[in-house]
Design a protein that fits this description.
The complex is a heterodimer of chains A (322) and B (326).
Chain A lengths: L4 H21 L10 H7 L8 E3 L5 H7 L4 H9 L32 H16 L5 E6 L6 H13 L3 E7 L2 E2 L2 E2 H4 L6 H5 L4 E6 L3 H16 L5 E6 L17 H8 L3 H11 L5 H23 L14 H11 L1
Parallel strand pairs in A: 1-2, 2-3, 3-7, 6-7
Antiparallel strand pairs in A: 4-5
Chain B lengths: L1 H14 L3 E5 L15 H5 L5 E3 L4 H14 L2 E8 L7 H7 L3 H4 L9 E6 L12 H5 L5 E3 L4 H13 L4 E6 H4 L18 E4 L4 E5 L2 H15 L4 E5 L2 E3 L3 H11 L2 E4 L8 H10 L10 E4 L10 H7 L3 H15 L6
Parallel strand pairs in B: 1-2, 1-3, 3-4, 4-6, 5-6, 8-9, 8-11, 11-12
Antiparallel strand pairs in B: 5-10, 7-9
Helix pairs in contact in B: 1-7, 3-4, 9-13
Classes of the chains: A alpha/beta (322), B alpha/beta (326).
Chain lengths: 322, 326
């Protein structure tokens, strides 16, 4: 099973289109524009048996990439009819929770890194050759539970790849300030974890680095750490005043847009026709706009609350509802 | 009780390969206070006994992740005072997963934690109230070897996260034969002593002290019914209410802090009736709202004693004389 580069270009455009439609219609959205090469590249070559734990910024895109319906995802983000959780939880940060897909179960950052590490422990015990890939931001990299998890993964030699999606800002705090030390990847190296630093706006670079790390994990070679430097083109959230950075800085990084860059490469190499790419891109954006606006206009009439948090009761509620 | 807990863990690990144990010093060392005695020899070679570094949040966090993926982890957290380090993965998030996914993803996870005043000086805090504040988290607290075995087995088989509080004054206390066929469901209290004059409800070490107080009271002609909560979440409010309605008075005895905790939750549950009140008086006997003090004399004064319980029971009974009760 090998995913073509054209398919990955398509996945990045879909990710951007869903993201931008959400920016237009959802005041609570956390924009991921500019970071697509990291999350599309990192999860490009996994199988359904592998565990994914994407960074929240890009988690819906990873779900799309793994076959989720944009219609269900959008309903989950708005908490309306057709939501995957029946309106019980946030679809923007936890779109498709399951035994092989980890989301966030509160706004706390860092815990999903521990969950992915635990999933890797489960995989090593039960499914040799399967791996977990776990994304997190530069802000989350400073969380204590991340340090604990990395140490445990190294100590137990777990099949996991940690991908630090460094968009250079933890809301407003620059990673250049907050990540003490020369490279965040040195923290992994200090634990004996194989680490790599890549251009996070270069899809091929991310895919190659994560691919090598995944291959190592599949062969019981233990955990790896990939630091992908990218840039958050939008604010942390909609209406972020962005008083902490200059428009010149943003403009400089706009020149390195990962989709435009990869598209130009594919066109230059003859894998993609420029006009065809523009036409398909417009189509995808129009389709996502349609899906997102339709989902937003939906009611929540079929959404009924579970009355207990206990698993057996949640199941009972579910059974009685169906 | 400690051996019964280990026996239940061993039996479930034998029956179900998805069960593993992680914690500090649970390898060749055998666990703090022998909490994992013999398990390393039986399961260590299979990689199912994981000797963990001092990383409580990651121990519980990885266990939550492994549980969502299909394992049934048991975390030996050593002491309940370490629970606060784990509350985001365990309680805020792990215990919410079944609700948030409507039961499609569950977190079958057990956290073992020693607590309570006793031979092991220090580490007394149970943090019971903190645990009880989070929906979806179950909390068991056995007081007999049989319950220790049966509740631990129920906890391991449960699809929700369950914290098993192991009271250090009871862990290596009275020995008794255990019948592995006896089922004890989480959330069911037990009447330990029948009585007609008042009900004393307690958990952990306070059950043992309530039973001793009941013997003293019997000499004075007061027959106390003693209820062992066994589970703090869910709380068996119905059994406590039925007992108190029968005896006409309720004394709640707790070793954990006042404020939010078993006593407060029990009172709230008892008031949740169509009438909005109980048909019997309720008195609370709890430690003061301070950290558990260190000096032996201060610690003794902090926790309700047998004499304190007997005195509170007599006071409650005497307050009933001359009054008409339901």
């Amino acid at each position: 099973m090998s995913v073509t580069e054209t398919a990955l270009w398509h996945a990045m455009v879909e990710a951007r289109a869903f993201d931008q439609a959400m920016c237009r219609h959802n005041g609570h959205w956390h924009e991921a524009r500019g970071e697509e090469a990291v999350f599309v590249g990192a999860y490009a070559d996994l199988s359904p048996d592998d565990v994914v734990a994407p960074h929240f910024r890009g988690t819906c895109a990873v779900a799309l990439q793994r076959g989720a319906s944009p219609d269900v995802l959008a309903a989950g983000v708005f908490g309306v009819r057709g939501s995957g959780s029946g309106g019980h939880w946030r679809g923007d940060i936890c779109p498709t929770p399951g035994p092989r897909s980890i989301g966030m179960f509160s706004g706390s950052l860092g815990t999903s890194v521990a969950y992915a590490t635990g999933a890797a422990l489960h995989l090593r015990r039960t499914s040799p050759g399967a791996v977990a890939v776990c994304g997190f931001g530069d802000g989350t990299a400073n969380s204590g539970i991340v340090a604990e998890s990395l140490n445990l993964a190294a100590m137990l030699g777990l099949p996991i790849v940690y991908v630090c999606q460094d968009n250079q800002y933890a809301t407003s705090l620059p990673s250049a300030v907050a990540l003490a030390g020369e490279r965040v990847s040195d923290r992994a190296r200090a634990l004996g974890i194989a680490a790599d630093d890549v251009d996070g706006n270069d899809l091929r670079a991310v895919r190659t680095a994560v691919g090598a790390a995944v291959a190592r994990a599949r062969e019981d070679g233990g955990p790896s750490f990939v630091h992908a430097l990218t840039y958050r083109m939008g604010g942390h959230y909609m209406n972020d005043p962005e008083t902490y950075r200059t428009s010149e800085e943003v403009a400089t990084w706009a020149e390195r847009d990962p989709i435009a860059r990869f598209q130009a490469l594919l066109v230059a190499e003859g894998a993609l026709d420029a006009d065809e790419a523009a036409r398909r891109s417009d189509e995808i954006h129009a389709r996502m706009e349609e899906i997102v606006t339709e989902a937003k206009s939906r009611g929540d009439d079929d959404i009924t609350p579970s009355t207990s948090a206990f698993a057996e009761d949640a199941w009972t509620d579910l059974r009685s509802a169906s | 009780m400690s051996e019964a807990i280990v026996a239940a863990v061993a039996a479930e690990m034998t029956a179900d390969e998805s069960v593993y144990l992680i914690g500090q010093d649970i390898g060749v060392f055998g666990g703090p206070m022998q909490s994992a005695k013999g398990l390393w020899d039986a399961f260590g070679a299979q990689g199912r006994i994981i000797d963990a570094p001092i990383s409580e949040a990651a121990m519980v966090g990885t266990a939550v992740g492994a549980a969502m993926a299909g394992s049934r982890p048991i975390v030996d957290l050593m002491f309940a005072e370490f629970l606060a380090l784990t509350m985001t993965p365990l309680a805020l998030e792990g215990a919410s997963v079944a609700f948030r996914t409507r039961g499609e993803v569950t977190v079958p996870l057990v956290v073992r934690a020693k607590c309570g005043v006793g031979p092991h000086r220090g580490h007394a805090e149970s943090c019971a109230g903190m645990l009880m504040s989070f929906p979806g988290l179950k909390v068991a607290m056995p007081t007999t070897p049989q319950d220790a075995y049966s509740l631990m087995r129920s906890a391991i088989r449960d699809d929700n996260p369950v914290v098993v509080l192991e009271h250090m004054s009871l862990l290596h206390g009275a020995r008794a034969e255990v019948d592995p066929t006896i089922e004890v469901r989480l959330g069911r209290a037990a009447v330990r002593r029948d009585g007609a004059d008042l009900t004393v409800v307690a958990s952990g070490l306070m059950v043992q002290r309530a039973l001793r107080a009941a013997s003293e009271l019997a000499a004075d002609g007061i027959e106390a019914e003693v209820v062992d909560l066994r589970s703090l979440a869910p709380l068996d409010v119905d059994l406590v209410r039925a007992s108190a309605e029968r005896t006409g008075a309720l004394l709640v005895v707790e070793e954990s802090w006042p404020g939010s905790g078993p006593a407060a939750a029990l009172c709230a549950g008892l008031l949740d009736t169509p009438e909005g009140r109980t048909g019997f008086p309720v008195r609370l006997l709890q430690p003061p709202a301070t950290p558990v003090p260190f000096a032996a004399s201060l610690e003794t004064a902090f926790v309700p004693s047998v004499a304190d319980i007997a005195h509170a029971a007599r006071t409650l009974r005497s307050s009933l004389r001359g009054t008409v009760t339901a």
